[in-house]
Design brief:
By secondary structure, the protein is an alpha/beta fold. The protein contains eleven helices and nine strands. The chain binds glutamine.
Length: 277
């Protein structure tokens, strides 16, 4: 079978299973098994696939057709221009989360903490933009931390990683930062979306936060002021319909200048507040 024939068959199979990114997915997976760039795939589309390549491509397409995320099949996801390793132990970074980075970069900061870092997406993006700042990140999942550390090493970015339930570990308990960011779990335990798209394959621990989805956001906003320098900022991602409740949590915790920023889709996505000077 030629590259072109393999591509067309895979695209048709994926489309028949309801994928709305069938062509792109087929191309990315074909690029993975042949180790050819997407451009090379087009230029050499009459090249024959080896038996081994055909077999592994077929296996990947079969798994993708079940809804299994492309990012896990590829083993990476691009975020803020950084190629990040992802595994089933980490959430797949979303473009919406880049809103946190954009908002953070509007101000100066010299020390940053990322709570629940997963693959390291937020802290590595911030460190890549402000290399002189001191950067720390935590996660409760040791397996996620291993992935984040590997990403930091591959990208040559220096970050201190800690296994911690939010601020609880000894290394973070007494520290203060100019900026705290987090994309915590925020989905309601009974949200039917958990059965859709990539969510069934991603770590539940990284997605779900109690009945109303706000357990972790409550814990973070309540504890954050004690870990911020005066004038420092907290930025948290949340669900599209949680803006009002999250702003209330920030206000109850004593934050000033509380506001919510919208993502590229126009949804309220990131709430920010400042610890009074
Ligand atoms: N934004 C993700 C989604 O709803 C959830 C991420 C999270 O819970 N932090 O697809």
């Amino acid at each position: 079978m030629t590259l072109n024939e393999a591509f067309l068959k895979a695209r048709a199979d994926l489309a028949a299973h309801g994928s709305d990114s069938a062509g792109l997915d087929a191309q990315l997976l074909l690029s993975k098994v042949t180790a050819l760039s997407r451009t090379a795939l087009i230029v050499h589309d009459d090249k024959e696939l080896s038996e081994a390549e055909s077999a592994s491509f077929e296996a990947l397409i079969k798994k993708r057709a079940t809804g299994y995320p492309v990012a896990y099949l590829l083993g990476y996801k691009d975020f803020w221009g950084l190629r990040l390793k992802v595994t089933e132990d980490t959430l797949i970074p979303r473009p919406d989360t880049e809103t946190v980075v954009e908002e953070a970069l509007k101000e100066d900061f010299r020390s940053t903490l990322d709570l629940g870092t997963g693959s390291g997406a937020l802290i590595l993006a911030l460190k890549s933009e402000r290399p002189d700042g001191a950067c720390c990140a935590c996660d409760l999942s040791e397996k996620a931390l291993e992935v984040a550390k590997e990403n930091a090493q591959t990208l040559g970015l220096e970050v201190g990683f800690y296994k911690s339930s939010w601020f609880a570990c000894p290394e973070l308990a007494a520290r203060r930062f100019d900026l705290i960011v987090s994309n915590p779990p925020y989905i309601e335990a009974r949200d039917p979306h958990l059965r859709e798209t990539s969510l069934p394959f991603e770590p539940r621990q990284a997605l779900v936060s109690g009945e109303d989805g706000l357990d972790d956001l409550r814990a973070i906003t309540a504890a954050a002021p004690a870990h911020l320098n005066p004038g420092g900022r907290l930025l948290t991602e949340h669900g599209f319909d949680q803006g009002e409740r999250v702003r209330a949590l920030f206000e109850m915790a004593g934050f000033s200048e509380v506001k919510t920023v919208r993502d590229l889709g126009g949804n309220e996505r990131v709430t920010c507040g400042r610890k009074p000077r």
